[in-house]
Design goal:
By secondary structure, the protein is α+β, with helices and mostly antiparallel strands. Helices cover about 30% and strands about 25% of the residues. Strand 8 and strand 9 form a beta hairpin. It is elongated.
Length: about 210
């Protein structure tokens, strides 16, 4: 006769899955961890957008400077204050005669001298206007431009633009020089960056992220 095995010798049943309570506990822990890390990821993304916006303006400044030298025309860059758009458009002025011969081929504009020139707005052509859009959440807080004698006439022609909310123009000349200017970009929580343009060389530099 076989002996009956002791009760404690029976194998325990094997578990094949987690219980609903265990799954809910894991989900709750993961949700708590996500709530702590998501704000940091969001701040990092906003910080990168601000830096990217500064680099975008710096790149546009370099490109527009080259375009002015290539075309022999003054290029104007202006931004919508408290907006996220900038626009670049060309002007023709006898100021350009220091670098380009007039359309008659006689070079008479060179003899007139840049200081005696009268700036004339080029007839507006939609294809000649370039729009530059800043990254989402980044706005243009201000544009400071150092006044210069050769920019006075062009600035007079853009007063109506400033009434509409556009900034004073930053000018790019055919000789490679530019307006001396500061372009400030801001994010409501992360801070701001400042793009500094040096007029003599046309070089643009971007600051670190500054306090709002």
């Amino acid at each position: 006769m076989f002996n009956k095995p002791l009760c404690g010798s029976y194998p325990l049943p094997r578990r094949s899955a987690f219980t609903l309570l265990e799954l809910l506990l894991v989900i709750a822990v993961l949700a708590a961890m996500a709530s702590l890390t998501m704000p940091k990821w969001g701040m990092l993304l906003d910080d990168r957008r601000l830096v990217r916006a500064g680099e975008q303006i710096r790149g546009s400044v370099a490109r527009l400077r080259v375009e002015a030298m290539r075309s022999g025309r003054v290029i104007m860059l202006e931004g919508m204050i408290e907006g996220n758009d900038l626009r670049a458009k060309p002007f023709y002025s006898a100021i350009d005669a220091t670098e380009a011969i007039d359309q008659t081929g006689g070079g008479s504009a060179l003899l007139a001298g840049a200081d005696q020139a009268v700036a004339v707005v080029v007839e507006q052509d939609e294809s000649a206007i370039e729009m530059i859009e800043l990254p989402e959440g980044i706005t243009l807080s201000g544009v400071s431009v150092v006044s210069a004698a050769r920019s006075a006439e062009i600035e007079q022609l853009t007063i109506s633009d400033q009434v509409e909310g556009w900034s004073r123009p930053v000018l790019f000349y055919p000789d490679g020089s530019t307006s001396t200017a500061l372009i400030s970009l801001i994010h409501p929580t992360m801070g701001r960056v400042v793009v500094k343009i040096r007029g003599i060389t046309g070089e643009a530099t971007v600051s670190q992220v500054l306090a709002p």
